[in-house]
Amino acid sequence: MNIAIIGATGYGGVELIRMLAQHRGVKQIDVYSSSKHNTMLSDMYPHMKDLYNEILQPLEAADWSAYEVVFLSTPPGISADWSETIAKHTKVIDLSGDLRLKNSATYEDWYQRESAPETLLKEAVYGLTEWNRNEVAGTSLLSNPGCYPTAVLLGLLPLAGKAAIDPSNIIIDAKTGTTGAGRTPSAVTHFSEMDGNFKIYKVNEHKHTPEIEQALDMRTGENHPVTFSPHLVPMTRGILATMYVPLTSGTKSGHIEELFHQAYDKEPFVRVRREKAFPATKEVYGSNFCDIGWTVDERTSRLTVVSVIDNLVKGASGQAIQNMNVMLGADEKEGISQLPVYP
Amino acid sequence: MNIAIIGATGYGGVELIRMLAQHRGVKQIDVYSSSKHNTMLSDMYPHMKDLYNEILQPLEAADWSAYEVVFLSTPPGISADWSETIAKHTKVIDLSGDLRLKNSATYEDWYQRESAPETLLKEAVYGLTEWNRNEVAGTSLLSNPGCYPTAVLLGLLPLAGKAAIDPSNIIIDAKTGTTGAGRTPSAVTHFSEMDGNFKIYKVNEHKHTPEIEQALDMRTGENHPVTFSPHLVPMTRGILATMYVPLTSGTKSGHIEELFHQAYDKEPFVRVRREKAFPATKEVYGSNFCDIGWTVDERTSRLTVVSVIDNLVKGASGQAIQNMNVMLGADEKEGISQLPVYP
Amino acid sequence: MNIAIIGATGYGGVELIRMLAQHRGVKQIDVYSSSKHNTMLSDMYPHMKDLYNEILQPLEAADWSAYEVVFLSTPPGISADWSETIAKHTKVIDLSGDLRLKNSATYEDWYQRESAPETLLKEAVYGLTEWNRNEVAGTSLLSNPGCYPTAVLLGLLPLAGKAAIDPSNIIIDAKTGTTGAGRTPSAVTHFSEMDGNFKIYKVNEHKHTPEIEQALDMRTGENHPVTFSPHLVPMTRGILATMYVPLTSGTKSGHIEELFHQAYDKEPFVRVRREKAFPATKEVYGSNFCDIGWTVDERTSRLTVVSVIDNLVKGASGQAIQNMNVMLGADEKEGISQLPVYP
Amino acid sequence: MNIAIIGATGYGGVELIRMLAQHRGVKQIDVYSSSKHNTMLSDMYPHMKDLYNEILQPLEAADWSAYEVVFLSTPPGISADWSETIAKHTKVIDLSGDLRLKNSATYEDWYQRESAPETLLKEAVYGLTEWNRNEVAGTSLLSNPGCYPTAVLLGLLPLAGKAAIDPSNIIIDAKTGTTGAGRTPSAVTHFSEMDGNFKIYKVNEHKHTPEIEQALDMRTGENHPVTFSPHLVPMTRGILATMYVPLTSGTKSGHIEELFHQAYDKEPFVRVRREKAFPATKEVYGSNFCDIGWTVDERTSRLTVVSVIDNLVKGASGQAIQNMNVMLGADEKEGISQLPVYP
Question: Semialdehyde dehydrogenase NAD-binding domain spans which residues (chains A, B, C, D) (predicted)?
Fold first, then answer.
């Protein structure tokens, strides 16, 4: 199997290579960049030295039909064009946010830029694998979920549309490591400013908000805004989302437990803890797992759900490979079943 | 002025010394410990070498009337006895949680141990200085607030009891550095386990919950449970509390801004930011300041309040000295007006 | 292939499982502990939940002949007995330091405890794979190198015994992440004490000193003490050793470069950088690689060699599996060829 | 007393303000910048909000004679002009490296830029206060030492020129927190790249090398190159320098101890530990202290000296204020005697 990665110089691209290198179905991985050419990727990333020696190629020269899958790990705003072009020749997995929202007006509202054409938005399948496996299997154009929505939706979708909860007042307090902000140096992520520091950012304004709402509303058939507050943790990898969900009268622990187990008992990458046994981010470090903890508080009639992922793996490249496996009819776990790196 | 510190070997005690050493009214600081004697405190804390050379003394031998103030920086469960004894001779400031709750049943429920006598609970003044200055000025027995309640209440009290908000559905998502867990090594705070890791703990079970509720209920005249979720951040110092408050219909940004400014414009240690300008923990590192940010979300009719403190200073020893200054009629800022250490 | 791990509750044991789980020749991994029984290892390490469900077993009941290899990942002082017993039935790889030194007096001097019997010391093969491959292949009792000696010796052995350098004045300034100190909480590795802190420890007294000297002296045929200074870095994983080596008159860069390339051009796990391109610890994170940088300073006639490893992988469990592969005649890279996890 | 700071937007400038704000002799602190005007410094540094409200002013408009002292906290290459101009009107303390080396050819060699005029280099007094107090007291143009040289020289000067050591083979392995690299974001100090990572940089090429050699050679009357290797630690503040010094035959511990005590027993900011009791960087965090540990190794006839400072305080702004106090005949400790912030 031959694979191409466009935008391979970012953390998402590099993480794709790390895992594809272990995938037994993959023969060759080519890397493309719109800005850097004739450079070995390992010159930018010495951890790959001698292990991955491909040279960054310009997009213009590529023959996309030579690849079974092309990953787009590009910044927002440029994948619309490329995914349309490439999807004519082969399967495309887009890791940018450009094809996640079905409604172009919502995209333009939150992203503050022009949306991809509506036809493309319609065609693209949202690749939260556990909740959309059949559609993923049948598509040639996959839109990979955002890091926060992956953690949040895996925690909330078992509950959405169920009588046990009230979906109208959900609050999501999410925390991420700094790789979520990408590889470009900035004042916010300068080590001297970020070390020993905890910050909140983009309160009520983060682009992942409508992505979360779209998936929840699709299950409930209703329209409920969520409160979503992202925070930056002084660590490299990991997301922990703490979610507050009002319970309807009479809902008991046992019912919540059942909903989680119904949803995930057969899922290879979602691990549900017993009540009050909460996961920490390092317990999924470097892996494709999503761990979920939860507890019911009778004093406040509120359910707390906590989910953790590695933002670069299940929140990006790992899930993209999981989707690739499903799209190609391969073993869903191939290449991404490594244990977390702990401690 | 002569000062005694009981339980000086913990982080709170050491931080008291750091700031009292700069207090122009303080002549002598003596240190007492129930477990270590005949040891120089600086042998345990080499950062004090040559600067603070006092020897840890046993409590039994002390003449408490020789001190203007005695600080109790002891673990929960032992300050009841000592504060009663010492308060007969001089002013006492108790940094343990033993005297914070007015209701002994609530204490026993959340602390899972026997409460101090009700008479003592009644006598003790709760030292959230900004909101209780007059009582603080008149007492000989001060109970210093907990670290989380300080951050949370400074953020919420300007709103509590006001028509602008609905006090019945408040959610508090709080994050702390590891010094909040004290100086005793444990698996949770072992560096290899905590570095690069973000954790939630004691969900709905943290002792500071009833302390927060008591202060809010006192303002509203009602009884509302809050949801309180503490988290551990891989950093040494600092608390950031993110608080979600439902707004009543028609409440606008300007009204919230006014409430914060009314409350804090004359306060030397609380700094209110303009809307959407959120503080980060490092901006108060090593200082007695509490910085508050906030924003109104019209989509969800919800107010987000963010407050940050240094848990060892405004959340413990700094506020204790602030209270000492008020109790003694000194300049409230003396010894604790240093700028934050940044970066 | 069936594998047993004794002392599986430490970081070394857990790391063995992470990599053996990816080894295509391994069918079953059993775990033994002298202190914990009837507990699932994943109850202590939730990152393994659902992925590795074995129960810790007592050593007494084991049938060692049922295993192709038994790993001893035990604290110093107890592997002598067990390795002797087990080696009668199957191949043993000892990760403790008990069998590394050939001279029992040296052991007792530096370890301050009784040595294993001299016959056992003689029998045990020192498993620095790159420099001892033939002996490793033929042994049933392998002593796995220490973490520091692995980093140091891979950097120095290409030079030892060569005319290019003077072996009599070598200084090694080494830095490690905190997992080198193990899993037991202590004041030194308490997060609040270690975060934002850089420390030196055991100056001139570290047990790895004679291990380094033994290997160097074996190559030079001389006896030279080295200066070895270990330091603790506020990070979880990784060793960087900076080594200062006096050059003999006339030695040029090109000669040094040649020595490194001669030594390692065919080695799968050692990567030599070009002069002045120094590696950082994170570039080998989670992997079995050792990266080496170096530069010649003509002003001082001194060579600086820098080597980095992941202390838990190439410095412990990864190298142990590399040795296992050699001992069993399998592909040396099997199970341990993953790319580093970056960033 | 009125003070001006030029280049106040960097970490050095901000740290000057933190400490000058506590100096009882200082009435007013004005801030100047060549790039930013009409901005409040606290808009860039919210930790100063409400506490320091001055506006950044352009240099052209200044009346330097209105200030008792002007601090130049500017990047290399621009202080030569300004210090010459301003020194005509008042006392100047230059924190850049431009005036530290007496030999302009050496400057141009290591800094790769044109040197300040030799007359200015001659006039400027090197402000390592403990070793140059008399000259500091008499000058109007002070050149403040570099961060590394401060740590290194305070550790080595008690020994330089003494028969106890051989000055010809000194090796300095130094480690710094990231604030040493300043406030401008870069790939090297991007949090995701620096967190959990330990790096070496500028091996044998760091500009502070000739500054160290100049001071040592001045004491020995000889010319000896030193080996100097700087490293980056994943922490914000602090330098730890490990220094390896060959002993002459017959030198004993007691003699070394005596040399350190002779040098520093009367010094308020240098603390000498007893043999083998080594300091860690956090033990001087936020303070002007330099702590020194040491040990003699008879096996190798080598002395190890370890010194720690806070690079922004004793290694920059704190020492600059110490020099200011000496230049003005004030109490040397005024404004900078705070205890370290621990933990």
Answer: 2-139
Q: Is D89 exposed, middle or buried (0-12, 13-18, 19+ CB in 10 A)?
A: middle
Looking at residue B230, its amino acid is P
**Residues of A recognised as catalytic:** 147
A191: chain D residues, CB-CB within 8 Å: 178, 189-191, 194-195, 234, 236
3-class secondary-structure state, position C46 = helix
C204-257 pLDDT per residue, tens: 999 999 999 999 999 999 999 999 999 999 999 999 999 999 999 999 999 999
- Sign of torsion over alpha carbons B294, B298, B299, B301: positive
Spell out a b/e string for C288-318, using b for 16 or more CB atoms within 10 Å of the CB, else e.
Answer: bbbbbbbbbbeebbbbbbbbbbbbbbbbbbb
Looking at the partner chain, which of A179, A185, A234 has a beta carbon nearest the beta carbon of D186?
A185
D201 vs C contacts (CB less than 8 Å): 278
Strands, E assignment, B193-299: 199-200, 227-232, 239-246, 270-272, 290-297
Beta bridge partners of C143: C94, C126
CA distances for C141 relative to A303, C100, C124, D52, angstroms: 55, 11, 5, 68
Look at residues D273, D277, D271 and name the one whose alpha carbon lies nearest to residue D339. Answer: D271
Angle at D113 between CA D110 and CA D119, to 5 degrees: 90
Segment 43-72 of chain D within 8 Å of chain B by CB: 45-52
Look up residue A52 and give its two tokens.
């991955």
| Domains of chain B as residue ranges with CATH | 2-144+314-327 (3.40.50.720), 149-311 (3.30.360.10)
Q: Where do the DSSP E strands lie in B165-310?
A: 171-176, 199-200, 227-232, 239-246, 270-272, 290-297, 302-309
Are C250 and C298 contacting, i.e. CB atoms less than 8 angstroms apart?
no
Nearest to B226 by CA among B268, B280, B167, B282: B167
Q: How far is CA B11 from the centre of its chain?
A: 13
Rg (CA), chain A: 20
Q: Is D333 on the interface with B (CB under 8 A)?
A: no
